[in-house]
Amino acid sequence: MSDRIIRVGHSPDPDDAFMFYGLSSGKVKLDGIIIEHQLEDIQTLNERALRGELEVTAISAHAYAYVADRYWIMATGASMGEGYGPVIVSKRYRTLKELRGKTVATPGKLTTATLLFRILTEGIKYVDIPFDQIMDRVASGEFDAGLLIHEGQITYQSRGYHKIVDFGELWAQRYDGLPLPLGLDVVRRDLGEETARALSRGLQQSIHYGYTHQQEALPYALQYGRGIDESLGEKFVKMYVSELTVHMGVKGKRALELLYRLGSERGVIPHVPSIELY
Predict the structure, then answer these.
(1) Residue 261 belongs to what domain range?
(2) DSSP code of residue 49
(3) For residue 77, which phi and psi values (nearest 5 degrees)?
């Protein structure tokens, strides 16, 4: 019987590249399965998940509320901030109060950062634009502040911005130190439970391979770093590929349940999805 081809979508970011290095390099193999990697930005992956296109894909935690009927959440592969997360920055303003009535550039309708913005702020306007344009368009004066994801979270100071709020810090302070769910890996339900669990184990093995072979995995991952050096790139990878990425456990599941409850209470998501981990 021929091997089954499974398309796996993930973003061309250092943390995702590090996670998938074991699989993409062929050092980790799955019996009866050939992995076909498809690299897309997270907003595109969110949109593809809405259509159920890929068997396995990285998505924003926010997006899962809209695709729970098609996908299960993998216990492995989540990106969670532990006291850090998306950051609102500005050159002119210093507090959320000052931003009342102003406009913030946010990084996409289905990103978790935009969900958090809508849950955790009041009276501030926002416009979704591509995440990699945010700092430049704030600098030009088009927007009063910007909500940064990816490497922007650790490079904004070098470009003369100051932090108004880090949603990861705020989340941990408000919610008893729970991690902040940002990204997930999901597996399509029609593959069946056995295949879903095999794919989750494969990703777990891939992450383990990356951590035990960092001399290979980090250089591979850092080729996807945008404007960051080796030191910052390694810092970014290890921020978002943690023990909770290996397996989110009870703490990660509780954090997800809280995120969806808050999003539903604020009317940002249509309902609270059930969470089954595979």
Answers:
(1) 4-80+180-265
(2) H
(3) 100, 0
**Cα–Cα distance, 30 to 259 (Å, whole number):** 33
Residue 265: which residues within 8 A CB-CB, separation 6 or more? none
Together in a domain, 116 and 193: no
Highest-pLDDT range among 87-101, 143-157, 231-245: 87-101
Handedness of CA 220, 223, 226, 229 (dihedral sign): positive
- Assess if residue 122 is contained within a domain: yes
Are 118 and 54 members of one domain?
A: no
The amino acid present at 251, given as its one-letter code, is K
Q: Which residue numbers are catalytic?
A: 150
Report pTM.
0.93
- CA–CA separation, 214 vs 82, rounded Å? 22
Residues 6+ apart with CB under 8 A from 195: 4, 33, 187
Tally of domains within the chain: 2
What residues does 81 pair with on adjacent strands?
A: 180
- 3-class DSSP state of 179: coil
Any domain includes 277: no
What pLDDT, in 10s, does the model give residues 7-45? 999 998 899 999 999 999 999 999 999 999 999 988 899
User: By C-alpha distance, which of 99, 152, 162, 159 is closest to 129?
Assistant: 152
Q: What is the pLDDT of residues 92-149, one digit of tens each?
A: 999 999 999 999 999 999 999 999 999 999 999 999 999 989 999 999 999 999 999 9
pLDDT in tens, 53-89: 999 999 999 999 999 999 999 999 999 999 999 999 9
